[in-house]
Amino acid sequence: MTRRERLMRTLRGEAVDRPPVCFYEINGLDERPDDPDPFNIYADPSWGPLIDLAREKTDRIVMRGVAFDGVLPDPVGDLAETESFERDGGRFRVQRVRAGGRTLTARARRDRDVNTDWTEEHLLKDEEDLEAFLALPPPAFRGAPDPAPVLAAEAALGGTGIVMIDTPDPLCLAALLFSMQDYLAAALTRPDLFHRLLDRYAAVILPQTEAAAAALPGRLWRVYGPEFAAAPYLPPSLFREYVCRHVAPMVRAIQKHGGYARIHAHGRLHGILDDIAAMGPDGLDPIEPPPQGDVELRYVRERYGKDLVLFGNLELSDIETLPPERFAEKVRRALDEGTAGPGRGFVLMPSACPIGRRLSPTALRNYEVMVEMAEGV
After folding, report:
1. What's the CATH number where 129 sits?
2. How remote is the C-alpha of 211 from its chain's centroid?
């Protein structure tokens, strides 16, 4: 059984020779140790063995967005004047949006030794900013999807894995316009304005999803953003309003063309699992165990595993800090609970990947443990 066959059979709920094991973002295709960009952390030799391990041994799920002539997933790309520059070892991007008599500003930074972007200033700071932003012309869906990046990645993978199409939901784009406290204030106290903001993005995301699903049928998708409405941030009633209302049509559009929709949500799931299941998706990740999450994998498997492929249940913090013998206990438990009794399927996977320039020997060894134990099932 090839790695691609193992993954596709898992998505379809068919029998496999063993549970797939995936390193999430680390796939052995996108990491380029020879890239001279000083912000490329994978140029550090410590990453080499892990990149090779992902390429040679894991069931590779490579994420790709689908490009359009439109503006998403940048929520202000069509409205903003953008300035990019490097200073003091950092790479900065500043966006300015003129809204009425206001200039709304967002600022992000990337450091050379950390593979992530930090938002130093959010675009919307108060209710007046939100109202001014909503008065601007909304983004419009236009153009056609470009399948080339997905097809190129599939050709490079061959039988070693699959491509997963990656898309935000409307809540993700809306929430990222604010700091966390300002987002929660708007979502809780001004649902009238917040629904208008979500509708603004849903009017583009849904037709884009439909077009991409038609152009690239039968693929796995990841829909990210629902965690913004999970506990402890918002109550389940607002999860249904802010997530289910918009994500359920995305799921149906993906499945209409034979695709598989996977919901991505970190953190506490117990109070929203019924709502997630009601949207009819095909998968869920990363199902974090307590204390990061609030539900055990066995519970999810017993109650929802008949319809959902379950991905994950390993914490990045454990990969980076636990001695290998203790981490092996976590892997064994995930494999036992993820495959216990009847169910559609399980993919062993961490919740994220390290973002520092140097990969520790402990982390490397724990990734090796994941492969060894999955192969030994």
Report:
1. 3.20.20.210
2. 20
